[in-house]
Structures are given as C-alpha cells and as structure tokens.
Write a structure and sequence with these properties.
Elements (H helix, E strand, L loop, with lengths): L3 E7 L4 E7 L4 E9 L7 E6 L3 E6 L5 H14 L4 E8 L10 E2 L2 H9 L8 H14 L5 E5 L9 H4 L5 H4 L10 H15 L1 H4 L2 E7 L3 E7 L2 E5 L22 H9 L3 H10 L2 H6 L5 H7 L4 H25 L4 E5 H6 L1 H8 L11 H5 L13 E4 L4 H12 L1
Parallel strand pairs: 1-6, 6-8, 9-12, 12-13
Antiparallel strand pairs: 1-2, 2-3, 3-4, 4-5, 7-8, 9-10, 10-11
Helix pairs in contact: 1-3, 6-16, 11-12, 12-14
Length: 387
C-alpha cells in the first residue's frame, strides 16, 4: 500500500476524519463534521499548511457528509488506497479489525438494535464510501473488540439467563481508544508497566473506564450500551432500574422517550440545566450551584469507579487520564484523585496544572499519567496491517 489511508470516526451527531500518508504513517489532513442533522451543521478542516478552516453546511445526515468529504480530499490531492472505520459494536463475533464484506455488513445490520445511536450511521457511511470509491477496500475497527475477553463474571448482567443467550451482556466501548492508550503506555513506560495493574480513564463528553491487568481488560464501566457507567455530558450513566417504570406511571413516558432522556437530556446537562460541557461548567461553578453540583457528581462518580476497579485489580500501579476532560481539565483530575491516598496515589499540583505527561508526585506509589488518545492513528495502523 502507498498513497493515502483515510480514517472515519462517526459519532451520533459528528464525524471525525483523518488522511494519512502511508509508509510511514503521517497525518496530513484532518477534520470534523459537527452537529450533523441540525441546521447549524459545520465542517472544520485542518492541514499542515493552512490550519483550521471552519465552514457552515446545509442540513445533512452522515451519508450526506461523504460527498463533501470526497471534494475536500480531491482538493487536497488525496486519493485513499484504503478506508478504516470506527464501528461502535462488533458483537461477540468480531474481536479483530475486519475487511468490510457483504457478510460483515450483514453482521453490523443485525447489531443495529444493540447500538441504535451509532451503528446505523456507521453502516450508512460505509455504504456511501463504497459508492464513491467502489474499488477501495474498507476496514471496520470495533470499539467492543478490546473488551471481547472480559472474564465471564464481568460479562454477566443479573437478568434472566435467556437474555444472555440473545447477546445481552456487558460489551464495553471506547475500545479503540483503550487499545491505543495501552500501546502508548508500553512505548513510554515499558512492557512491565503495560502489563501491570492499569486503570484507563477515557473522560470526555462520553466517559468510561477500563481495568487492565496483564495486558487484558478485566472490567469496564460501560455495559450493554454506551449509556451505562459514569455520568457523562448528556448521558445519565448507571441509574435505578425502577426509574423507567416510575416515569411510565407518572408521566406516561414511552421507552423511546426514556431512551432520549437518558442519552441526550441527562448527565452534566441534566443536572446543571445549562450545559454538558465541562469547560462551560467550570466557568460557571463559582456562581451557579447547579454547575458546581454537576461537576461534583462527575468527580465523585469517577472516584468511586477508580476505587471499585482498584479492588477488582487487587491494587493499582498506573492510572491514565485521556479524552478531552482527562487530558485538559486539571481541576477535575485533582478533585478525582483527592482522597485516593489510601491507594498510594498522590498528585503533584504543579505537574497536574501544567498537564505534564506524569502528574503524580515522585513519592506516589501509583503513577498517574496523561496520554492523549488518538483513535484515528490506531484505526490507520490497523487498516494498514490488515490490508
């Protein structure tokens, strides 16, 4: 393979892309489609010569972004030799990146009900690229693959066993990010650190954690869907399972309405009633009790998950922060780690404030790191390796 590798990372209302020159891989073009499906959709393109160039878009769905992206690539002189996609759900079957075939597409369609917020749009993107580049191979990289070998006890959900036979279990997500973070941890800290007791914290608008021992994920906070686990920007995270029945009785809320509530109207947005963006909440917390409570809830839950996963791991050697919040929100990292001295964890305030690569103190038994995640690079590597 020579020329270009294109990576596609589709979210529920966004699409990130990057173009890499191969041999060796070098990112030369990247961008983001934001607010897909709304009247204020926007495309921002960034390259090494002209920097970021935002522009408005008409209302488009995910597939409708593809012709726009094809034009951007043509203007940049890029002609992809292969296209790698982030696919949220691979089910129990797909444990490795896979070349997209009719059979793989059929599997993804069968999994659409497992991830209705993401999978249909990802399928539409694959099909749209196939129309524009019919001879270019496409590769699916699965967010669930990193967690494919969870211990049985971590997979099980405590509901009637017949549902497990239908595939209802803990799958876990953010796996492409976690795979990259583990590779980077090995690169910067060595194989022994990567095979120790590691907690990976991907904290962004979507937030989750993964407990890793001997290089294998043993548990993760997201479960059957990405709505489970920590409180997030607009997702509720774990809730009392009696809540849907209560809202159905008192507000005649349907399952579809409840799904929208816990995915798009809850989390930091729901508690603060102003924003699901941590940057906005940090700016408001001094004079807005709701914003302060939303941030306190986020940090409290993150601290609890660290404690729980440290118990599952039998201790903790390395804590890695990643994602938009994990990489940039020093005040929240400090609040999350405050009180974890019983694990042997101590932050260095100056290092944390500077967003240093290692933010734990010299005397801390637990090494706390910031590792910027790069899902696009991991997808590009996997695509090249498979092709």
């Amino acid at each position: 393979m020579d020329a270009w590798v294109l990576t596609i990372n589709g979210g529920s209302s966004s699409l990130k892309f990057a173009a890499f020159r191969n041999a060796p891989l070098a990112r030369v073009l990247a961008g983001t489609f934001e607010r897909i499906g709304s009247d204020d959709a926007r495309l921002t393109v960034s390259d090494s010569t002209t920097g970021k160039r935002p522009r408005p878009l008409p209302r488009v769905d995910h597939a409708g972004c593809v012709p726009v992206l094809v034009d951007v690539l043509a203007q940049s002189g890029a002609s992809p030799s292969a296209i790698g996609h982030r696919v949220v759900h691979g089910g129990a079957r797909h444990r490795q990146p896979a070349r997209v075939t009719a059979e793989v597409l059929a599997d993804l369609r069968a999994l659409a009900t497992f991830a209705p917020e993401h999978e249909p749009a990802e399928i539409a993107l694959i099909e749209a690229f196939a129309r524009h580049y019919p001879e270019v191979p496409q590769v699916a990289c699965f967010d669930t693959a990193f967690h494919a070998d969870l211990p049985r006890v971590a997979q099980l959900l405590p509901i009637p066993r017949r549902y497990a036979d239908r595939g209802v279990r803990r799958y876990g997500f953010h796996g492409i990010s976690y795979a990259y973070l583990l590779q980077e941890l090995e690169r910067v800290a060595g194989p022994a650190a990567a095979r120790g007791r590691v907690l990976l914290a991907h904290l962004g608008n979507g937030a989750s954690m993964a407990a890793v021992r001997d290089g294998r994920c043993i548990d993760t906070s997201m479960a059957f869907t990405p709505a489970a686990g920590l409180v997030m920007g607009t997702r509720a995270g774990d809730l009392d399972p009696g809540l849907p029945a209560y809202l159905a009785r008192t507000e005649q809320m349907s399952a579809v309405q409840f799904d929208a509530l816990v995915n798009h109207e809850s989390g930091l947005l729901g508690v603060s009633e102003t924003s699901g963006d941590v940057r906005d909440l940090l700016a408001r917390e001094a004079h807005d009790t709701r914003a302060a409570e939303a941030l306190a809830l986020f940090c409290y839950q993150a601290k609890k998950w660290i404690g729980a996963f440290s118990a599952a791991l039998g201790g903790l050697d390395t804590l890695v922060f990643a994602g938009g919040i994990g990489e940039h929100a020093a005040p929240l990292r400090a609040r999350i780690c405050d009180g974890l001295g019983y694990l042997g964890l101590a932050l260095d305030a100056a290092r944390n404030s500077d967003n240093a690569a290692v933010i734990s103190s010299d005397g801390s038994r637990v090494t706390v790191r910031i590792i910027p995640t790069d899902e696009e690079l991991l997808i590009a590597r996997a695509t090249v390796e498979l092709m």
